[in-house]
Amino acid sequence: MISTTVSRPRPVAVSFDVGGTLIEPWPSVGHVYAEVAAGFGLADLEPDALNRGFASAWKSRRGHDYSRAAWQSLVNETFASAGASHPSDECFHALYHRFEQAEVWRVFEDVQPTLEALRAQGIRMAVISNWDERLRPLLGELELARWFEAVVISHEAGHTKPAPEIFLRAAEQLNLEPEYILHVGDSAREDEEGARRAGMQAALLDRSAKDGGGTTISTLASLPELLETLRHGPLEN
């Protein structure tokens, strides 16, 4: 039997996805949509119905480039799925700007302790995110920006994950070969597969899993231990 074990260098930097990895909408996308829409005459919208509509629209999206036009199309599809009419342009713009604000986002509880632990280990950190012009100020408002040497955003980079170019941009900014970087995110395709295609190591965050295994983790709190494992042994692909 041929072993699939491949020796890799110990990572000296970790890059993070943002949405679903570091932060999430709070209390939910549907709650924020319903709250804002009510101010434009779209009353009695059920947050749960909007959440289901958003999940469906997000899963089926194609060619989403994180532009305002792409977001407006996604919002329209979400409201239609919830049995509501499309929001007016004014309502959409209010929704768009609402998600600039820190109070509609929650930083996961495992983020701050993990970032502190990694910094104590001397691990360098970066962000690689499919997002738009709202992300940089948002990271500042959420007091996350100070942790990262590099922040690479698809809106600025001209590439979206899983394209290797966006990962390589982060490696360039860190002045590291990709194989010395461990990327962590919650999407098997965009984060795990994309990072590996770019030559990085990767860990998949699955918060719904009871326990992780290998390079799948159920909490960011497992990252320091995973890095110790990678320090002393090979990475299982």
Key words describing this protein structure:
237 residues, alpha/beta, Rossmann fold, DNA polymerase, domain 1, six-stranded parallel β-sheet, 10 helices, 10 strands, elongated
Summarize the structure in words.
- The chain is an alpha/beta fold and 237 residues long.
- It folds into two domains: 147 residues, Rossmann fold; 80 residues, Orthogonal Bundle (DNA polymerase, domain 1).
- Helix content is 42%, strand content 15%.
- It contains ten helices and ten strands.
- Strands 6-5-2-7-8-9 form a six-stranded parallel β-sheet, with helices on both faces. Strands 1-10 form a two-stranded antiparallel ribbon.
- The longest helix has 14 residues.
- The protein is elongated.
- The chain starts with a strand and ends with a strand.
- The N terminus is likely disordered.
- Give, in spatial order, the strands making up the sheet with the most strands: 6-5-2-7-8-9
The CATH level-2 architecture of the largest domain is identified as: 3-Layer(aba) Sandwich
Broad structural category: alpha/beta
Total beta-strand segments: 10
Tally of separate domains: 2
Q: Let me know the largest β-sheet.
A: 6 strands, parallel
Considering the protein shown, what is the CATH homologous superfamily of the largest domain?
Answer: HAD superfamily/HAD-like
- Which sequence of SSEs, written as H and E, runs from N to C? EEEHHHHEHEHEHHEHEEHE
Low-confidence stretches: 1-5
Give the CA-CA distance, first to last residue. 15 Å
Sum up the overall morphology in one term: elongated
Helix proportion of residues, in percent?
Answer: 40-55%
Number of helices: 10
Gyration radius from CA atoms, angstroms: 19 Å
* Average residue-wise pLDDT: 93
Beta content comes to 15-25%
Q: Under CATH, the topology of the largest domain is which?
A: Rossmann fold
CATH uppermost class of the largest domain: Alpha Beta
